[in-house]
């Protein structure tokens, strides 16, 4: 692979117990400085499921970005060795997760999934923990990319409905970035690196700022 190679890191976490509330974290970085960060709570389940879902999320982002060359890093030996065919899947519940990863894998022409020690995966670990409100060894105070369908959920809006509302607000504000109050922060609509309209920028803000923001 040459300097067109993208790199990704993923991690999963559960809150207080395993099974528990799952959080996924992932980072996708391109050769020209493109960065996609993912942090999302995904409900109850096991830590291994969270690891798989984090891998699925970052590979889906790579497919969306039309990445041709990709190296993915994670600290879950179980997930990586199962995906690479080195270990059998003894838990039937993980079979669909592995299948989905393999389906995404064939959509990327050149992809390698590699294990790294936990201490080298701090960024993805911090994102997965932030998603479920757990303190991480590596603090993060940055923006996170999330799919528009996830952003719309707190409002009971579909992605299309939320997009229309954001477009209207953007016109009112003369094209300036538009903000929406969220349960845990605010959403900013921005141009991303890929030209797709299904990703939104989410930034965590203090409660006082959240309360001051209006949907319309």
UniProtKB/TrEMBL annotation:
Residues 2-133 form the RNase H type-1 domain. GO terms for molecular function: nucleic acid binding; RNA-DNA hybrid ribonuclease activity. SUPFAM superfamilies: Ribonuclease H-like. It comes from the Bacteria. This is Ribonuclease HI family protein. It comes from Candidatus Dechloromonas phosphorivorans.
């Amino acid at each position: 692979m040459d300097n067109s190679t993208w790199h990704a890191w993923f991690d999963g976490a559960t809150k207080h117990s395993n099974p528990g509330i799952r959080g996924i974290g992932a980072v996708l970085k391109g050769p020209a400085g493109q960065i996609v960060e993912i942090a999302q709570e995904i409900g109850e389940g096991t830590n291994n499921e969270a690891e798989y879902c984090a891998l699925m999320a970052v590979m889906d982002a790579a497919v969306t970005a039309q990445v041709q060359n990709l190296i993915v890093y994670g600290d879950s030996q179980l997930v990586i060795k199962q995906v690479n065919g080195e270990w059998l899947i003894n838990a039937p519940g993980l079979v669909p997760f592995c299948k989905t990863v393999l389906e995404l894998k064939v959509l990327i022409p050149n992809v390698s999934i590699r294990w790294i020690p936990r201490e080298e995966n701090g960024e993805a670990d911090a994102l997965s923990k932030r998603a479920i409100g757990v303190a991480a060894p590596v603090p993060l105070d940055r923006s996170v990319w999330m799919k528009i369908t996830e952003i719309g959920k707190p409002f009971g809006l579909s992605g299309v409905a939320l997009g229309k509302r954001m477009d209207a607000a953007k016109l009112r504000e003369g094209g300036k970035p538009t903000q929406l109050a969220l349960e845990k922060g605010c959403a900013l609509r921005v141009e991303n690196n890929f030209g797709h309209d299904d990703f939104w920028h989410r930034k965590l803000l203090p409660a006082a700022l959240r309360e001051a923001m209006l949907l319309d």
